[in-house]
Recover the amino acids of this structure.
């Protein structure tokens, strides 16, 4: 057996002309023994062989193909290189089992929930069967241009049933008739000045609160502006909305809860002859500031807080000097007063309606406007347009009308 193995090794050595376990290819130094550079044999080729590539040898006999692509023997496999950490399989002793620890003191023990532990659900009129509920209506997609009003508050706010009772609800008819007569302060004094100062333009959104019966909202709409008209008096809004004015959206809501106006969606706001009838003026300023854009304007018109203090200011006549003067019995202290809307009828014994009026000094308005980021940058005082044409005091009356303004205008910008 040993001789047979030695014979096979000798025959292989004669075919390759080299030891069977030599390292690296041996250079052929004979001239012409190969066409490769330096006398090395060419790459294996399939030409002249039966499906097996051959190498030329020194003896001229074909050399068998080795899968390694050369005469280098295969490197013995070593799962780890020298110096590597030897493999150590995990054992149970390497990771001891974690002991079980129940819930510590102070934690509530787990109690499974059963039907007996649940209290019966109280009856609610809204718990109707699903098939009897209102049909589902998907919410429409919001446009890329954010609207200045909340579309989903219109149906919930513009209803007389959900409106709060106000002192102006029962005088809505009288107030509407008063403004339709003409030659009023609204028509002759306030309207021309407010249009000059507000300067409503097309594609602008103006917040009119409280809007009353829509006297100024109509004028803003005629100039091309979109108007959000809001008032807490449902009777006033009902009278205003019956004309169906294009470009005006009517809402019944309190001035300190303007949920229909989006944040920063309003260009201008108008608070005309309504601030003295609002109790929560600070909340109104806060909501208007939220709805205004940065740089937006708030236009306020009020009865002059210095010369028109409810039941604490009046006209007087000095017989010695023949001068009509204005008497003030108080100014700095705040007050809430019920105003008789028909003094003549009250004198005759008839029962008439009253409205509430709130007095605040001028500094109060400046402080609360600045508190909500509204800076006053303009102030005007407007006098009466009326004139006395007869009587011994006509000159004194006309002079006093020009000396004591009836209305105060403030413009505040959001900063």
């Amino acid at each position: 057996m040993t001789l047979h193995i030695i014979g096979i090794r000798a025959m292989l050595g004669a075919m390759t002309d080299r030891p069977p376990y030599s390292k690296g290819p041996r250079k052929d130094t004979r001239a012409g023994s190969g066409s490769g550079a330096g006398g090395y044999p060419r790459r294996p080729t399939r030409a002249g062989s039966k499906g097996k590539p051959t190498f030329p040898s020194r003896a001229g006999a074909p050399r068998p193909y080795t899968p390694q692509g050369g005469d280098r023997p295969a490197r013995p496999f070593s799962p780890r290189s020298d110096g590597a950490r030897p493999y150590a399989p995990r054992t149970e002793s390497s990771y001891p089992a974690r002991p079980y620890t129940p819930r510590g003191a102070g934690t509530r023990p787990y109690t499974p929930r059963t039907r007996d532990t649940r209290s019966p659900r109280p009856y609610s009129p809204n718990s109707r069967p699903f098939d009897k509920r209102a049909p589902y209506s998907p919410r429409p997609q919001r446009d890329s241009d954010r609207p200045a009003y909340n579309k989903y508050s219109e149906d919930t706010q513009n209803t007389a049933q959900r409106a709060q009772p106000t002192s102006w609800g029962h005088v809505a008819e009288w107030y509407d008739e008063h403004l339709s007569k003409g030659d009023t302060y609204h028509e002759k004094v306030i309207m021309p000045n407010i249009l000059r100062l507000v300067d409503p333009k097309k594609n602008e959104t103006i917040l009119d609160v409280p809007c009353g019966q829509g006297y100024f909202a109509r004028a803003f709409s005629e100039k091309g502006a979109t108007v959000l008209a809001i008032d807490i008096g449902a009777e006033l809004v009902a009278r205003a909305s019956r004309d169906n004015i294009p470009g005006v959206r009517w809402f019944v809501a309190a001035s300190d809860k303007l949920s229909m106006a989006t944040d920063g969606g309003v260009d201008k706001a108008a608070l005309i002859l309504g601030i003295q009838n609002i109790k929560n003026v600070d909340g109104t300023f806060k909501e208007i500031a939220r709805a205004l854009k940065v740089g937006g304007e708030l236009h306020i018109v009020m009865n002059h807080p210095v010369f028109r203090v409810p039941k604490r200011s009046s006209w007087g006549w000095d017989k010695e000097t023949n001068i009509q003067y204005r008497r003030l019995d108080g100014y700095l202290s705040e007050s809430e007063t019920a105003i008789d809307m028909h003094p003549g009828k009250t004198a005759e014994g008839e029962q008439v309606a009253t409205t509430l009026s709130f007095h605040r000094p001028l500094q109060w308005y400046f402080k609360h406007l600045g508190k909500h980021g509204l800076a006053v940058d303009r102030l005007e005082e407007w006098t009466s347009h009326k004139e006395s044409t007869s009587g011994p005091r006509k000159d004194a009356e006309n002079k006093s009308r020009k000396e004591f303004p009836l209305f105060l205008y403030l413009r505040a910008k959001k900063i």
User: Anything to note?
Assistant: The first strand starts at residue 205 and ends at 208. Residues 189 and 385 are 7 Å apart (CA to CA). The longest helix spans residues 2-16. The domain at 162-305+357-414 is CATH 3.40.50.150 (Rossmann fold).
